[in-house]
Amino acid sequence: MIIGLTGGIGSGKSTIARLIQEQGYPVFDTDTEAKRLIVEDAELRAELVALLGADVYEGNVYRRDIAAQRIFADPALREQVNAAVHPAVARAIKSRTDRVLFVECAILFESGFDRLCNLTVAVTAPRDIRIRRVMNRDNADERQVIARMDAQMSDERRSELADIVICNDGTETLPALLRQMFMALGLPLLDK
């Protein structure tokens, strides 16, 4: 069973993912895996060189600064890069043989990775709480955080699309939220 785990910036998605791992369940972090594939997957690397230029790699180092400058200056190029990276990540997800696999992905629905999942979970939190969390975590000012949040899918839309919604607003402890989620998924807590 593949379970998609998503949530906007500051929702607590990554914290929930860490707790899931502590339970002994595997969590496939799409951001980490994409970074690995960009360097190690020869087919993807060739596609990125064709799109972004050979100077986007220095040996086995992917020059994110060069890539970002080009991608963010050209929305069509950004779409092409995503069209190369997302299938590579999808192949990596499909290659997993875990009985239960959680797929952590901020852009689960936007990327289409939700179509690989049997169930999806959205971690949400009120906007003001998310802003405070990110300001504290990243030492960022409020305008920067709001701009990042506004660039993402809204919690409301994520909640409409998800099978299960977990509200991480601080009224419940994280272990209690984890128990609720596992009950909704029909999975046992492993008490590790």
Describe the structure.
The chain folds into two domains: 1-26 and 100-184, 3-Layer(aba) Sandwich (Rossmann fold), CATH 3.40.50.300; 32-95, no CATH class. It is built from ten helices and seven strands. It has helices at 13-22, 30-40, 42-52, 64-73, 75-95, 108-111, 127-138, 142-150, 155-161, 174-185, and strands at 2-7, 27-29, 57-58, 61-62, 101-104, 119-124, 164-167. The strands form two sheets. A five-stranded parallel beta sheet has the order 2-5-1-6-7, with helices on both faces. It has a two-stranded antiparallel sheet with strand order 3-4. It starts with a strand and ends in a 7-residue tail after the last helix.
The CATH architecture of the largest domain would be 3-Layer(aba) Sandwich
CATH class descriptor of the largest domain? Alpha Beta
How many structural domains can be distinguished in the coordinates? 2
Average pLDDT, rounded to a whole number, is 92
Poorly predicted runs are: none
Helical content stands at 55-70%
CATH superfamily of the largest domain: P-loop containing nucleotide triphosphate hydrolases
Q: How would you describe this structure in keywords?
A:
192 residues, Rossmann fold, 5-stranded parallel β-sheet, 2 domains, single chain
Provide the fold topology.
Elements (H helix, E strand, L loop, with lengths): L1 E6 L5 H10 L4 E3 H11 L1 H11 L4 E2 L2 E2 L1 H10 L1 H21 L5 E4 L3 H4 L7 E6 L2 H12 L3 H9 L4 H7 L2 E4 L6 H12 L7
Parallel strand pairs: 1-5, 1-6, 2-5, 6-7
Antiparallel strand pairs: 3-4
Helix pairs in contact: 2-3, 2-5, 3-5, 4-5, 7-8
